[in-house]
Amino acid sequence: MTNNIRYEIYDAFDEELPFYLQSNIERTQLMCSHEPNWHENLEIELCTYGSGYILCDGEQHRFAEGDIAIISSGLIHYTGTSEQIKYTCLIIDNDFCNKVGVDYKQVRFELIVRDEHLKALILELCNIIHINTDICRRAKLYDIILRILIHIREQYSVDQLPDFYHIVRTEPLKSAILFIHENYCRHFNLDELARTVYKDKYALCREFKRYTGRTIVEYTNDLRCHRAVALLKSGKSVSEAARLCGFENMSFFAKIFRRHIGRLPSDFINR
């Protein structure tokens, strides 16, 4: 299994729906990415067929048909199997959680539960999302998501994260990635990043490369270029998109953009 860890960002949810939903994800021993990932959002998985496991912050937990995994914010996790497994994955928008008062970052949840009521809510969500002719479709989907959040908060949450959660080996890596995502729009150097998240910049570089498969510079430039694509599509000029994404030199921006995106910035201008 590779050591690469993906940091996933879900910040472009559908304008109408505050969640991502993917049904019938199938995994076999040969059909797995083998890359643990983590993100800020709350994630819920319902196993609908077969059996496997969930690796969560280094601990492996059995995950079988009927089980529901409630994956708290920031946990490095991976769903795998040595046989075959199918599951539904629900990822809920951070802003929606905040608006309804479910502070997902300040609590952790029981990881594996068996709950027929929660299972029924998830299956109802899967059913209604495909009924585009229902005039109350959006309202019903919001209602179900809200009931899911209320249920897991009341039944399966632990109010305080354990101390070890903040001192695990991967915490400096997480902090570095979060720093990059919060500061990609301006110039910063390795010394500043190291002072913020780690004592030794050389150790940070080694750990970053080991877990993400990319150097800090490669990761930062890739993020900046993808953010620039979104700005260009929204109507920003090439020079403005470059400036807002931390590029101070236009020729360098064009060179790096083409390397990471495979096209020129002007190709994305909204005409």
Description:
This protein has helices at residues 94-99, 116-128, 137-156, 171-183, 190-197, 201-212, 216-233, 238-244, 250-261; strands at residues 6-7, 19-28, 37-38, 42-56, 59-64, 68-71, 77-80, 84-92, 108-109, 112-113, 157-158. With 271 residues, the chain is of the alpha+beta class. The longest helix is centred in the middle third of the chain and has 20 residues, at 137-156. The model is unreliable at 162-168 (pLDDT under 50).
Number of helices: 9
Relative helix content: 40-55%
Helix/strand order, N-terminal first: EEEEEEEEHEEHHEHHHHHH
Radius of gyration (CA) equals: 20 Å
Terminal-residue CA separation = 45 Å
Itemize the secondary structure elements and their pairings.
Blueprint: E1 6-7, E2 19-28, E3 37-38, E4 42-56, E5 59-64, E6 68-71, E7 77-80, E8 84-92, H1 94-99, E9 108-109, E10 112-113, H2 116-128, H3 137-156, E11 157-158, H4 171-183, H5 190-197, H6 201-212, H7 216-233, H8 238-244, H9 250-261
Parallel strand pairs: 1-3
Antiparallel strand pairs: 2-8, 4-5, 4-6, 4-7, 4-8, 6-10, 9-11
Helix pairs in contact: 2-3, 4-5, 7-8, 7-9
